[in-house]
Amino acid sequence: MLANAIVGLMSNVVWFVVTYQAYHNGNKLWWKPAVLILLTDAAFSLEAFDFPPFLDSFDAHSLWHGATILLIPEWYDFLVKDARWDSHIDQLSKD
Questions:
Q1: Residue 49, SS3 per DSSP
Q2: pLDDT tens-digit profile of 4-60?
């Protein structure tokens, strides 16, 4: 668990660098990865601060996975739009 948390934190640092670069390059969606990182960290707190199941069904681990389901489409939306932005920047540099 500790190793996974460390790798996750390192990943967060990389995503904050991506956020800074997107801001610096004028990408209008620069804020989105930062918000998604914070929401992912909030969801991870369910996993980190484990608690017993309630209603005999929902434990911390199941709620962690449930929370991340909602974040995945937003990550992909950002990645697609960021790739389009990068293509636009590449096209401008060739002209």
A1: coil
A2: 878 988 999 999 998 998 898 888 888 999 999 999 888 888 877 877 888 888 888
Query: Two tokens at 34?
Result: 């930062």
Helix (H, G, I), strand (E, B) or coil at 54: strand
CB contact at 8 A, 45 and 90: no
Are 47 and 61 in contact by the 8 Å Cβ rule? The answer is yes
Tokens of 21: 């670069």
- Would you say the C-alpha torsion 14, 17, 23, 25 has a positive or negative sign? negative
